[in-house]
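Example for tutorial group B:
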């Protein structure tokens, strides 16, 4: 009897496995027939974006099916509702959300081959417009994958150009503010000339990427990649590949790179690694002397390895930490960073000079440290961070790494902003029923002094000031959205500029001067 049940269960199991296999084979065939010509045989993208779980996990479950059925407006994605059954569509949606059968490779040669330079680009000798070139704003419009260039004094739109699909993170500017680099989640890096108002070219630095950072001298651009497990360094002059680091810890365990940032006072890039308990620092100092395998700085702990040119450029230092760090925030002189893992519940302070952890902080609720900002309060420097999972901001004292207070908000937030000249911190409530509010917080009393609700029911998020701190720009983060210009002192609305799902906004001056109230 027992034996009969066992055999019948086995047969049922085989039947289920065979059915699943057949289903996945038919989804594979459907993909090849309907999708591969635009999205690539290997699902890594072509004229259309990559269709892999690393990017698709952000979409709500029913959205993928709807896009396959109805297509995507203002893109080349056609509607397949007329030719595919709902079962086919469901099978395809599951298929493209399943992991790739094997880890894809994207070598230095692949990156180099992907580079395209705009043949019609002519570098202008001077800006082709009258506006102050250092007070321009870039507004990323994720609704139709464009960027608008705004005059920061008059808010006139000077240009609107197409970007690669799904731009993420802050664009990075050359130190003179002339060129800007924009990265998409599919790893494309686009170079744009703000004087000529023209694209210079683009290159695919990774297959699934997180963010980019530019070196202090403006010569190198680092791209943090999830796929493959690499960091790509490009020459900003012509987007050629300078170096690709395979990212793995000392024992060889590979890791995704969560984020890369520039540490200007240190002439280096600092990397947060998602899967291993190390932070990396990569030298971009043009005067770095030759380094040798196993060389250890006399004044700094951590291993420095000779990896690149004989000048020691791009030499790498590993700093061991107690847990993998997802994201971090530098203190103003870049001696320390505060880092957290997204689910760790605590923050750690790592001193970059001695190369080890020096303090711990209670930081539950997924703090979004990359959005942290700092300012002076009662003669002491504090930094504040939103939390992606809790309705509060944490305010931390930087001199003794203590938790000064927490500020209760109307919901979990994503971004914080201020400006040297402003008395206020602006904090959005990105998640939950109050996603339409924006808190304005007094920097000294830490009290919420105003709660703005400019577009009831719509997501309102992310703020950026103009170079003088006169105006604060806020996104109505919807397809039929807008950028709202506020008077930064009176908090009155001055203007509303229609935009297609505007996300981040970036002021050239604030970025190139590392303004204390903005992201870097
Ligand atoms: Fe971001 C910046 C990580 C989801 C919009 N985001 C960053 C940065 C990091 C980061 C490390 C800093 C990069 C920089 O500017 O150099 N973001 C993450 C995540 O880990 C997270 C939570 C999950 C993920 O899927 O990656 C995440 N981010 C989002 C979104 O869902 C947002 C809201 C919409 C989107 O477009 O993807 C989003 N992230 C942004 C924006 C910035 C950003 C607009 C730049 C902020 C700035 O002011 O500089």
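The residue assignment follows.
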């Amino acid at each position: 009897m027992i034996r009969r049940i066992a055999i019948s269960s086995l047969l049922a199991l085989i039947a289920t496995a065979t059915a699943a296999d057949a289903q996945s084979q038919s989804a594979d065939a459907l993909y090849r027939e309907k999708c591969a010509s635009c999205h690539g045989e290997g699902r890594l993208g072509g004229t259309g974006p990559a269709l892999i779980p690393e990017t698709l996990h952000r979409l709500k479950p029913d959205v993928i099916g709807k896009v396959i059925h109805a297509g995507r407006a203002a893109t080349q994605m056609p509607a397949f509702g007329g030719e595919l059954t709902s079962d086919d569509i469901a099978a395809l949606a599951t298929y493209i959300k399943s992991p790739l059968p094997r880890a894809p490779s994207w070598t230095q040669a692949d990156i180099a081959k992907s580079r395209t330079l705009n043949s019609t680009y002519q570098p202008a000798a001077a800006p082709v417009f009258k506006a102050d070139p250092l007070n321009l704003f870039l507004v990323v419009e994720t609704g139709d994958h464009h960027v608008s260039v705004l005059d920061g004094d008059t808010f006139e739109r000077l240009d609107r150009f197409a970007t690669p699909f799904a731009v993420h993170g802050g664009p990075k500017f050359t130190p003179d503010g002339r060129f800007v680099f924009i990265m998409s989640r599919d790893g494309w890096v686009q170079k744009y000339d703000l004087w000529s108002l023209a694209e210079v070219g683009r290159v695919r630095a990774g297959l699934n990427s997180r963010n980019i950072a530019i070196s202090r001298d403006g010569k190198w651009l680092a791209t943090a990649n999830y796929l493959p497990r690499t960091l790509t360094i490009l020459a900003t002059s012509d987007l050629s590949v300078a170096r690709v680091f395979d990212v793995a810890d000392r024992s060889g365990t590979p890791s995704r790179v969560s984020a890369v940032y520039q540490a200007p006072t240190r002439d280096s890039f600092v990397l947060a690694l998602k899967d291993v308990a190390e932070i990396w620092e990569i030298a971009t100092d043009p005067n770095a002397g030759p380094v040798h395998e196993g060389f250890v700085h006399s004044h700094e702990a951590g291993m420095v390895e000779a990896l690149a040119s004989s000048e020691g450029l791009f030499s790498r230092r590993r700093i061991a930490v107690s847990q993998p760090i997802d994201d971090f925030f530098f203190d103003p002189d870049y001696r320390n960073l505060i880092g957290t893992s997204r689910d760790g519940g605590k923050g750690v302070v790592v001193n970059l000079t001695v190369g080890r952890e020096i303090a711990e902080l209670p930081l539950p609720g997924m703090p979004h440290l990359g959005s942290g900002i700092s300012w002076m309060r009662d003669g002491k420097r504090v930094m504040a961070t939103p939390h992606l999972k809790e309705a509060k901001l944490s305010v931390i004292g930087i001199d003794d790494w203590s938790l000064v207070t927490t500020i209760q908000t109307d919901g979990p937030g994503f971004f914080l902003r201020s400006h040297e000249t402003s008395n206020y911190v602006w904090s959005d409530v990105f998640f939950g029923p109050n996603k339409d509010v924006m808190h304005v917080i007094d920097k000294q009393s830490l009290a919420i002094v105003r709660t703005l609700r400019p577009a009831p029911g719509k997501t309102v998020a992310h703020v950026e000031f103009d170079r003088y701190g006169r105006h604060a720009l806020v996104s109505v983060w919807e397809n039929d959205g807008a950028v709202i210009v506020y008077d930064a002192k009176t908090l009155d609305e001055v203007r509303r500029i229609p935009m297609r799902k505007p996300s981040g906004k970036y002021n050239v001056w604030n970025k190139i001067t590392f303004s204390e109230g903005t992201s870097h």
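The two ends are 69 Å apart (CA to CA). Compare this with the pattern of hydrophobic and polar residues in the output above.
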